Amino acid sequence: MKEAWYSKKWFIILLHIAAWAFFFSLPYMLRSPENEKPGPKVSTHTDLGFYFSLLMNLSWVVLFYLNAYVLIPHFMYKKKYGQFALTHVAAFVLMLSEVNILSHIFFQQSHFNYRTIFFNFLIYLFIFGLSTAYQLIGDKVKSDQLAQEKQNEVLKTELSLLRSQVSPHFMFNVLNNMVALARKQSDLLEPSLIKLSSLMRYMLYEADEEKVSLEKEMDYLQSYIDLQQQRFGKKVQVKVHMHSLDNQYQLEPMLLIPFVENAFKHGTGMIEDAQIDIDLEAEKNVLQFTVSNKYNPASAEIKDKTSGIGLTNVKRRLNLLYGKKHTLLISTNNNWFVVSLKINLA
Length: 346
Prior knowledge:
The protein is α+β, with helices and mostly antiparallel strands and 346 residues long. The chain has two domains: 45-145, no CATH class; 146-344, Heat Shock Protein 90 (2-Layer Sandwich). It contains nine helices and seven strands, in the order αααααβαββαββααββ. It has helices spanning 9-30, 43-76, 81-107, 114-184, 189-204, 214-232, 257-266, 297-304, 310-322; strands at 212-213, 237-244, 250-251, 275-283, 286-294, 326-333, 336-344. The strands form two sheets. It has a five-stranded mixed beta sheet, with helices on one face. Strand 6 (326-333) and strand 7 form a beta hairpin. The chain is rod-shaped.
């Protein structure tokens, strides 16, 4: 990913320079013209005062970055609070010594008194607080960005795992079914191969995209359901209703297939009057997806041991992608397993 211009080092340096220039020019900008005494000005004293302020300001800048980039990482983050405090006490004493030395050099007098100590102590506290806040907030932002990058990598890994684990058992059964169709010279072989080809194309190519259209996701679900229906025939009653009023909706690829796969996994086999209901509607930027299936509690635990990516990881993926913009409700009632997913796609 290309680095944004506002994240480049040169821009950050310019921003810091501008911030310091503005900060140190405030006393001059806020000074009232009424305080200016009429008559000739003593340029020598003014120039000395300017150079004195310049050197002190540079010292405060050094203190800011010394605290942010050296003292906090080496002492505070390592919980060496005693050394951290002693270092700042020493730094404050050095700042007072600098004030006294520069006063002797430029003005031939000492400014070392209680008023000077108190005034510089307030400045020191301000610079210390500003520097500490700058570093802590900056590190927190970097930490959050790193965590987000790790989450994105986890999502990519989970998607790859999902794509690889949806296929093996399903593909094995579909191919066996096609062998049977070929032996019977059935007219269903060609449309089955076309559906399988479409499904494979989506898994291998479309699923690499960050997002896909809801229409493509629905076509993938329909191809998967059709091939499963062909495999089970009249052993399982499947009711499907998928409708979208706006084909411009987009979502992450293969986000919905685990729920359908789970329904066929647990809703088939030793189940009397097996039935699977799948309902998908997208309207007004809201996707409502419901999958219901009859299941046998006795065989559910055995099948869970051979599950693919599993509903637990699907929940985690939804939390990472949509957070509070989605709700996922899973319930069981009278041997019916119901998954209801609602996503705000806006």
